[in-house]
Amino acid sequence: MSIWSKLFTLGRAGAHDASAAVVDANALRILDQEIRDADKAQGKARDDLAGLVARRRILETEVDSFRAQVAKYETSARLAVDKGNMDLARQVAQRIADLEQDIALKAPQVDDMRQAEDQIHAAIAGTDRKIEQLRREVDVVKVNESVQKAQATVASSGAGSSIGSAAQSLARIRERQLIRGEKIRAAGELEDRRTGADLDEQLRLAGITPGHSSADDVLARLSAPKPTLQIEQRNDSKTSDG
C-alpha cells in the first residue's frame, strides 16, 4: 500500500471519528428527531388506514347491493317462468349471473381488505407502544445526562473545594456569633453589678428585700385579730363598770 493510499485511509478514519464525535455530542437531539419522524410516519399510517377503511366500506356496500339485487331478480325470474315468459326469464337470469360474477370478484377483496385493516391496526398499536416506551427511556437518559453534566461541571470547576470552604466559613460565622452573644451577656452582668441591680435581685430571692412579702407573711396578717374588735371590747368593759 502506497503512502498516499495510507494517508487517504487515515483521512477517512479521521472523518469517521469526527462524524462519530458529532453524532455523540448531538445524540439526544438526533434521538428526539427520530422520535418525531416516527410520530410523523405513524400519522401517515393512520391516514392510509382511514383511506383503506373508507374504500373497503364502499366496496362492501356495493357487494351488499349486488346481493340484494340478486335476491330481487331471482324472485322476478321465477315469476317470469311461472307465466311462461322464458325470454324475460332468460334476461333476468343473465342479469343475475352478471351480478354473481361481480360478487365473486369483489367479495374476496372485501375480506382481504378487512384482514389488512386488522394487521395495520395491530402494527400501529405496537409501534405506538414502542414509541411511548422510547420516550420514557429518553426522559430518563436526559435526566441522567443533566446530572452527569452538573457533576462534571462541579468536578472541573473545583466547586467541591468551594463547598468545603463555604462550610468552613459557616462554622466561623457561627463561632463569631457565639462569642458576640457571650460578650453581650457578660456586659449585661457587669452593668447589673455596677448599678446594684444584681445585689437587689439577690436580696429579693433571699426574701429580705424591703417590701417583700412571702405567702406565710400574708397568712399571718390575715389571721391576726382586727383592731375594731379590740375597741368594741374596751367599750363594753367601760359600760359594765359604770
From TrEMBL:
Region of interest called Disordered, as start-end residue ranges on this chain: 205-242
InterPro entries membership: PspA_VIPP1 (IPR007157)
Listed name of the protein: PspA/IM30 family protein
Record PANTHER family: MEMBRANE-ASSOCIATED PROTEIN VIPP1, CHLOROPLASTIC, PHAGE SHOCK PROTEIN A
Biased composition (Basic and acidic residues): 233-242
Organism: Alterirhizorhabdus solaris
Domain of life from the UniProt record: Bacteria
Protein family (similarity comment): Belongs to the PspA/Vipp/IM30 family.
A Pfam match: PspA_IM30
Organism classification: Bacteria, Pseudomonadati, Pseudomonadota, Alphaproteobacteria, Sphingomonadales
